[in-house]
Design the sequence.
């Protein structure tokens, strides 16, 4: 399985679209958001926006493997995978590990700009915890993207994953503070995986720890998206 993971990581890192959209776009958005306007004090906004856009970049990279599996399905790669001793769960876990590795450049780029360009100051343990928690928190979204890739056509996967990324990011408050939302939308946002994903980073950046509610809600989404990914792979394996 690890040889399979290494192969998929090399394929992803060679993709120019991943470098531009997965790494460059969140950095550009972060610089634009923090230079053109702010909510609250400048320091607070730079910190909030750094965590939100790092989470957004990580989500974009996490959805990436879903498009890859949709293309593999159309090319017959899933038929080849059925000929090697990997169970459906192992194939999904392998792709999930690929997504987990490829989110690190997107995540790290925004955090680096936050510290070096915008002057965000955190303790060493906070930077380390921020990276680890946001890295681990992308797993549910990787599984959602994979499920879409196994279940849908290549073109449909790109559209659906992009739609999921945008809706989750906006409703989850990754671009703008949820305090500015209407009451009903703020309540809805608290139940979304993207909002709780960002809360992992914000709680640490503000000197605290993620709440039990955040961990529980993310765990529930992880189980749901993981089951969906395995189900979608089984369906795809029977039809290609």
Sequence:
């Amino acid at each position: 399985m690890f040889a399979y993971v290494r192969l998929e990581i090399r394929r992803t890192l060679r993709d120019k679209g991943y470098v531009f959209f997965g790494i460059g776009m969140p950095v550009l958005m972060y610089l634009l958001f923090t230079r053109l306007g702010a909510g609250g004090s400048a320091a607070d906004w730079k910190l909030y926006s750094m965590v939100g856009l790092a989470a957004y970049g990580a989500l974009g990279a996490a959805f990436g493997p879903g498009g890859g599996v949709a293309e593999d399905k159309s090319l017959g790669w899933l038929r080849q995978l059925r000929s090697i001793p990997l169970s459906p769960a192992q194939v999904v876990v392998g792709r999930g590990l690929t997504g987990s590795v490829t989110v690190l450049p997107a995540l790290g780029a925004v955090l680096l700009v936050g510290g070096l360009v915008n002057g965000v100051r955190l303790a060493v343990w906070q930077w380390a915890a921020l990276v680890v928690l946001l890295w681990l928190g992308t797993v549910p979204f990787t599984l959602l993207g994979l499920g879409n890739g196994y279940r849908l056509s290549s073109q449909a996967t790109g559209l659906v994953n992009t739609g999921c990324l945008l809706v989750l990011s906006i409703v989850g408050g990754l671009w703008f503070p949820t305090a500015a939302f209407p009451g009903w939308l703020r309540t809805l946002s608290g139940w979304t995986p993207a909002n709780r994903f960002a809360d992992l980073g914000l709680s640490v950046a503000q000197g605290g720890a993620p709440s039990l509610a955040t961990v529980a809600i993310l765990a529930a989404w992880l189980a749901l998206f993981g089951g969906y990914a395995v189900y979608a792979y089984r369906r795809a394996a029977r039809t290609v």
Summary: The two ends are 21 Å apart (CA to CA). The first helix runs from residue 2 to 13.
